[in-house]
Design goal:
The chain has 204 residues and is α/β, with parallel strands linked by helices. It is built from 8 helices and 5 strands, in the order H-E-H-H-E-H-E-H-H-E-H-E-H. The protein has a 5-stranded parallel β-sheet with strand order 2-1-3-4-5, with helices on both faces. Strand 4, helix 7 and strand 5 form a beta-alpha-beta unit. Helix 3 packs across helix 8. The radius of gyration is 21 Å and the shape is globular.
Length: 204
């Protein structure tokens, strides 16, 4: 009977020790929200950027990304979910669909993006990260008219990030946009491309 009790006690102490080691070696999980379009939502892929990010980082994620979502059509009420989630970081990747539809970077578009950021800022102690969809080699695949428009979008992201005092991540594709090994179609990353984007986000 004494031997049994000793074995039980030993197993108990080993279990406690393992739990203590795990709790000491793993940092606290961070809460991260993702607001984006089909680049973030994982169009043509098994997982979204948020899901892959959580696998590569000790985090709990909220994915508010949707195919077709844009600066112009973003429903500001969707941020209510974000506020209740209380994230520490919010990645905002919007604008690609506005660009593809040929929408010019008007003052209205600027203000809509600023409004999204302002509403996100109402969450206490949250870090806002604006993510540009633009890759440094994207011009190679565009018409002259689209190149001109792309330049305006690039300026918009820089201008808004400076005025709103938020972090800006540029060149998330790391010059892989348009390369077949990294694309699922003309505009979206495959799994390999998603990993490149995740690498850009994890630099934060």
């Amino acid at each position: 009977m004494l031997m049994v009790n000793q074995k039980v006690s030993l197993y108990l102490w080993i279990s406690i020790l393992v739990l203590l080691i795990n709790s000491c070696s793993r940092p606290d999980e961070i809460r991260v929200a993702f607001i984006g379009d089909s680049i973030f939502s994982g169009f043509n892929n098994k997982d979204s950027i948020a899901q892959i990010y959580s696998k590569n980082n000790n985090s709990i994620v909220l994915d508010l990304s949707l195919p077709g979502q844009s600066i112009s059509n973003f429903n500001i009420e969707r941020l209510n979910k974000c506020k209740s989630f209380e994230p520490e970081i919010i990645f905002i990747e919007l604008g690609a669909n506005d660009f593809l539809l040929g929408k010019e970077c008007t003052e209205e578009l600027h203000n809509k993006l600023i409004n999204i950021i302002d509403n996100s800022k109402s969450i206490n102690e949250v870090k806002i990260v604006l993510v540009s969809f633009i890759d440094s080699n994207m011009e190679l695949y565009l018409t002259a008219q689209k190149k001109y428009l792309l330049s305006d979008y690039k300026k918009m992201y820089v201008d808004v990030s400076e005025k709103q005092d938020v972090f800006l991540i540029e060149n998330i594709w790391q010059e892989k946009f348009g390369k077949k090994n990294y694309m699922s179609d003309n505009y979206h990353p495959n799994l390999k491309g998603q990993k490149v984007i995740i690498k850009s986000l994890l630099k934060l």
